[in-house]
Design a protein that fits this description.
Radius of gyration: 23 Å
Largest sheet: 16 strands, mixed
Distance between the termini: 56 Å
Strand content: 15-25%
Strand order of the largest sheet: 15-11-10-9-12-13-14-8-1-7-6-5-2-3-4-16
Structural class: alpha+beta
Low-confidence stretches: 397-414
Shape: globular
Number of strands: 16
Mean pLDDT: 86
Length: 414
C-alpha cells in the first residue's frame, strides 16, 4: 500500500476528549455494518466504560467490530470487561502482549501507538487522543491538551485498507472493503480538502512521517507552527527548522512546560540554545500537560496524528498521521494554537537559556547523542517479532449446563 493524496474530503478538528469522545461515540451508535478501532491506551475508567457501552450496543445489534490495543499501553483491562465484549462477538486483539519479567514489563519498545477508528468505511478518526478520563478538561491540572480529526471522503478508504492490511488475513472483511471502495467511487465527495494518510512502521515506511515534516519545512514561505508533546528529533529536522527561520519564515514551536514526565522538559531544553539562537520561537505551554502532535505551514498545510517528534515515534513505534491541504482547516488549527501561545504559554528567550559553559555543552552533547542513538541501542536487545494476540470469547458453562438439562430431561424445569 502506498500513501496517495485524495481530493474531496471533509475534515473536522476535534480538541481534547470533550469534543472527540462525543463525536466517536455518536458515529459508533450510527454504525450499520463494520467498526475498526485501534488505540494505545484504553483505561477502565469513566471514559473507558462509555466506549465499552457503545461498542457493546453496536455488537448486540449485529455490527461487526474489531479492536486492536497495545499490549504495553493497555495491560490492565479486567477479564470481565473484555469478556463481555468478546461474548457479544467483538474481535479483540492485543499488539505484542508479554508477561512481566521480575515484575517489569518488557514490551517497552515498538509500541502500537496509533489512534484510529473507521466506521462503515464512511467515517474515520485519526489523532493522538486515547480512551481515558485524563483527556477530559474537567480531569484537573493533569488533564491533557490534545487533538484528533473526524474524516469523511475518499481518504477514509485508504485508512480502512491500511487497518485491514495490518490484521491477520480476513477474506470477508477484504470483500466488504472492495465493495465499499466501489460504492465510494460512485458517490459524490463530501468536502473540498485534500488529504494524505501516512504511517510509520518498521518495514517499508520507517521514516515517512519525518520526511513529510522535512518537506514541509523546506517548502515553508511564511509561517510554521509545530506543537509536539515529546520533542527530541534528530539533526535533520532541527536543521530544517533553523534553516526555515533563517530564511525569514516565522517558526513557532510549542512544547510542554508542565510535562507529564519530567525527563520531557529536560530533553527539550537541551535543544533551546540551538533553536532560539537560530531564530526559532520556542514556547512552553503551562496550563496542563501538552499531549498534541500537530503542525501547520503557511495557509494550507496541516497534520494531525499520533506521532511525536522523538526517538520512539520516529524510529520505533507504529504511528499514523493525516496530512491535510485545506485553507479552512489550516486557519482553524492556527487560531487554536495561537490561542495556546497567547493565553497559556511562556516564550523562551535568551535570558532563560543554559549558560554556554564547557560542562553544559558536554552534558548536552552526550545526552543528545545518547537519546538520538537510543533506537539503535534498543536494536541490540534480544530480537523478537511483535505478534497480535486474539482474546478468545469466554466459555459459559452455566448456559451449556442449562441447555443439556433441557435436552436430556424435557420434563424437568431447571
Amino acid at each position: 500500500m502506498k500513501p496517495t493524496w485524495r481530493d474531496g474530503n471533509r475534515i473536522q478538528l476535534l480538541e481534547n476528549g470533550d469534543e472527540y469522545y462525543p463525536a466517536v461515540f455518536a458515529a459508533i451508535n450510527k454504525a450499520k455494518s463494520k467498526i475498526f478501532l485501534e488505540t494505545f491506551i484504553w483505561f477502565e475508567d469513566e471514559v473507558g466504560r462509555q466506549l465499552h457501552a457503545v461498542l457493546l450496543r453496536a455488537a448486540q445489534r449485529g455490527v461487526s467490530i474489531e479492536v486492536l490495543l497495545d499490549g504495553y499501553g493497555s495491560p490492565d483491562l479486567s477479564d470481565s470487561f473484555v469478556n463481555e465484549l468478546t461474548a457479544a462477538g467483538v474481535i479483540f486483539r492485543y499488539y505484542d502482549p508479554r508477561k512481566p519479567l521480575f515484575g517489569m514489563r518488557t514490551n517497552l519498545f515498538r509500541r502500537m501507538h496509533r489512534k484510529i477508528v473507521v466506521i462503515d468505511g464512511e467515517v474515520a478518526f485519526v489523532g493522538g487522543i486515547n480512551y481515558s478520563a485524563e483527556h477530559m478538561s474537567d480531569y484537573g491540572p493533569e488533564a491533557k491538551q490534545d487533538y484528533a480529526v473526524r474524516v469523511e471522503g475518499p481518504v477514509v478508504q485508504d485508512i480502512y485498507q491500511f487497518v485491514l492490511s495490518n490484521l491477520p488475513e480476513n477474506e470477508q472483511a477484504s470483500r466488504w472493503w472492495r465493495r465499499r471502495r466501489q460504492q465510494a467511487a460512485d458517490n459524490t465527495t463530501p468536502g473540498e480538502a485534500q488529504a494524505l494518510f501516512v504511517w510509520r512502521d518498521n518495514e517499508e515506511h520507517r521514516d515517512d512521517i519525518e520526511r513529510y515534516y522535512l518537506k514541509m519545512l523546506a517548502n515553508a514561505k511564511k509561517e510554521v507552527i509545530i506543537a509536539n508533546a515529546y520533542f527530541f528529533p534528530g539533526y535533520r529536522l532541527l536543521h530544517a527548522m533553523r534553516n526555515a527561520a533563517r530564511r525569514g519564515v516565522r517558526v513557532k514551536l510549542i512544547v510542554q512546560g508542565e510535562p507529564d514526565m519530567p525527563i520531557v522538559k529536560v530533553g527539550a531544553r537541551l535543544l533551546y540554545n540551538y533553536l532560539v539562537k537560530g531564530g526559532v520561537q520556542v514556547f512552553e505551554y503551562l496550563r496542563r500537560p501538552l499531549h498534541g502532535k500537530v503542525a501547520l505551514m503557511d495557509d494550507h498545510w496541516a497534520t494531525v496524528g499520533s506521532s511525536n517528534l522523538d526517538p520512539l515515534s520516529l524510529s520505533l513505534n507504529l504511528e499514523a498521521n493525516l496530512i491535510i491541504h485545506d485553507r479552512h482547516f489550516n486557519q482553524t488549527l492556527r487560531d487554536n494554537l495561537n490561542r495556546l501561545i497567547r493565553e497559556d504559554s511562556k516564550r523562551v528567550d535568551e535570558s532563560m537559556l543554559p549558560r554556554r559553559t564547557w560542562w553544559n555543552l558536554t552534558k548536552s552533547v552526550l545526552a543528545f547523542h545518547f537519546l538520538r542513538h537510543f533506537p539503535a541501542l534498543v536494536g541490540w536487545l534480544p530480537a523478537h517479532t511483535p505478534r497480535l494476540a486474539l482474546v478468545n470469547p469466554p466459555v459459559q458453562p452455566e448456559i451449556e449446563t442449562q441447555d443439556r438439562v433441557e435436552t436430556d430431561n424435557p420434563g424437568v424445569k431447571p
